[in-house]
Design a protein that fits this description.
This is DNA replication licensing factor MCM7. This protein has 364 residues and is of the alpha+beta class. 32% of the residues lie in helices and 23% in strands. The chain is built from 12 helices and 11 strands. The protein starts with 12 loop residues before the first helix and ends with a helix.
Amino acid sequence: MSALSAIRSVVDYDSEVSKISQFLEKFVDASAKKMDAEMDTELEPAEPRHTYMDALQLVADRAADAVAIRLDDVRAFEVQSSGAHPAFAFASSLAFRIEHNAKCYVELFSRAIDALMPEAATSAMQDADADVLDVIFQARRDRDRRDREALAAGAGSEQGGGTGAAESFPAVLTRRYTVRFVARAAAPVLAVRDVGARQIGQLVTVRGIVTRVSDVRPAMVVAAYLCDACGCEVFQEVKTRQFTPLAQCQSARCAANRSRGKLHRQTRGSRFLRFQEVKVQEMTDQVPMGDIPRTLTVHCYEGAVRRLNPGDVAHIAGVFLPQPYTGFRALRAGLLADTLVEAHDVRPLKRRYDQLARELTPEL
């Protein structure tokens, strides 16, 4: 039998969320400061441009669906707030911890963004493009409000008091954004064969040529069900490529009635993300003599899809993750797992080659 051991984590994640919130609230772009300084001094000083709070306002107004976090900004803010020299130990900085545990910090940033998300300028229900989840959330809020009014009037509620949409729905379902990390400018660009087990969980930047691109398909992240006995909504968060759907309702109402209602999946109430799989092969100059080029699988979600085409040379920054085998292959593989990169920042290099070609073209 394998021995089990529990070690207390040395990272205080609540403190990390607090630091992230301070960064999102107070960071001011240096270029914006310089632009304000170059303006006429006789004019009234403009309010500081908080880069990420402005980005959150765009997300709240449905003008953007992603929040790009630049690690260079995190590094600069930490140096400014601490008053330390820019050359202080990078290994003890927040940017270092994000870079080496990127998958975890995506959730920490999401928690901080949820707490700081401003109110939308216009109601989502007034938008002609409001999706079905907005309708569900608004219907739940209206129902909870009616229940509270009935309880306040002393009439009671046979349907049970509402607990609020934010408490009933998973956080993944209510988020209308994705968090993406942009690697540091000084971060090394690796070849496919240089990415190994030491980089598991880290934010890596890989250079390669795209050999195959799949179609854009919906990937389910939250499965919604409806109970035929109590009418409750049940949500199941999906974190793997394959999952087992729920069959019986386990809500408090079914437990009180001593019944196990049957769950029916509601596709319209589930949440899907745009998904695309890309195969990246290392460049010719990266392959040692006598070896064959190696290939890496890249998973692109939401804004990263449709950015690459076969034949493109690109820098892809993402989280290097293991992917366990499923089905019959899992029985044969045992403890082995495949690897992939979950793309955060995709930068095709085609424009650079076009610029080089224009520079080499003789002027007539």
